[in-house]
Sequence to fold (238 residues):
Amino acid sequence: MSRQLETLSLSVSYGDVVAVTDVSLQVSEGEVVALLGANGAGKSSILKAIMGMVHPKSGSVRVHGEDVTGQPAHTAARRGVALVPEGRRIFKRMTLRENLEVGGVTQPSSETNARMQEMFDLFPRLRERQHQLAGTLSGGEQQMLAIGRALMSKPTFLLMDEPSLGLAPLITAQVYEVVRRISRDLGIGGILVEQNVELALSVADRGYVMSRGRIVLSGTADFLVRSPALHQAYLGMS
Ligand SMILES: Nc1ncnc2c1ncn2[C@@H]1O[C@H](COP(=O)(O)OP(=O)(O)OP(=O)(O)O)[C@@H](O)[C@H]1O
Ligand SMILES: [Mg+2]
Fold:
C-alpha cells in the first residue's frame, strides 16, 4: 500500500466558477511539496477538496490508496490529514492552550498533555503564552499556534495554506524552520501553499505550479527554481 496522499484528476467548481481542473498530485510521508501559483490559481480549493470541505466535481482523493473523496471534513483527522488554513482561523476567544486541546480532540485525552509539550518544544514561544487569549497573540505566534493545533491530531499529512502571509522575515524564518523539522524529524508529508516561490522551494523537495486551475509545471525544487516557465506562470502569462 502506498504511503501517500494523492489527488487523481481532481476538478472543483463553485457553481459556474471553475476553480480546479484535472489536478493530479502526490505527496509521500516525510516529503514536502510546494503548491505554487498566482492569486486565484486554485491552490486553496485543492486543499479544501482534500479535507472534504468542498466536494469535487470529479476526480478523487486517496490516502494510503484508500478513496476518501467527498468524506466529510470532520473525518479528515481520523484519516491522518490536517489543515493549517489560510488566515490561521484560530479560536481567538479561547486561550492558546484551549486551542491546542481542540486540535487534539480526536486523540486519547490521556495523551493531550504530552502532545502539547511536544508542540511547546517545537515552538518555545507558545509555552510562555499558553494561558493567553489566542486573539491577543502576535501574528507570528498565531501562525505557530495554527500549525501546533493542526499537529495535535498527529497527522501523517499536513496541508499548510500560506503560513508566511503577513509575517516579518525573522518570524517567517522561524515558522519555516519548523516546517522543515515537521517533515525531517516527524516524518510528516507536507503540502505547502506559498506565494513566496523562493521561500517555498528552499524547504520543498518537489513542487507543482498552477495557473488558472491547472498544473502547468512540476518537478524537483532544484529544477523549478531554475525554470523560467515558473516565473511566467506566476505572472499569469502562461
Ligand atoms: N466559495 C467560493 N465561491 C465561488 N468562487 C470561489 C469560492 N472559493 C474560491 N472561488 C474561486 O475559485 C478560484 C480559485 O480560488 P482559490 O481560493 O482556490 O485560489 P488560490 O490559488 O488559493 O488563491 P489565493 O492565492 O488568492 O489564495 C478563484 O477564481 C475564486 O474566486
Ligand atoms: Mg488561497
